[in-house]
Amino acid sequence: MKNSTLQGIPGMLRPFKEYLETWSLPEGAEVVFFGVPGTCTPFVELLCYAARSLPCTFLFAPYLHEDESRKMVYTEGLGFQLGEPCKITNPSVFILMGGLSMPGVPVKIEEAEALLAKYPGVACAGICFMHMFQKSGWLDKISFDLLIDATISVDITVE
Q1: Which of 72, 84, 87, 99 has the fewest CB atoms lying closer than 10 Å?
Q2: Domain regions of the chain by residue span
Q3: Which CATH class is domain 14-150?
């Protein structure tokens, strides 16, 4: 196991793209993000943007609802946004966003485990903030190929 500490948004995005590159994904391979609508989607957009040069198809599924997945669509000059509904048919990599493990979110660790068990051979990465997977106990039950755990620090100035 190798640990690195990086800074800022590039410190989250570059390792993510490098991780996807290690899989040598073929044209159309699906990278599927599972996360909380609204709060995880802006981060999914950033992550997709970082990997836009890869031949993958990016999908976002709210919570763990596979049947509600949508294609992430790239628009030149604007970035990625949610697009039309798109069924998961060829998953190569699942990305579990840390929002899934937050208190009050209607997702149980057992449901995530069941989802992963349905797709043996599909790689799985976790991306969270503020040690959310660790705090919620998910790291005890899910082995991520890659875990990006970012910290947010906020300075506020009001005049």
Answers
A1: 84
A2: 14-150
A3: alpha beta
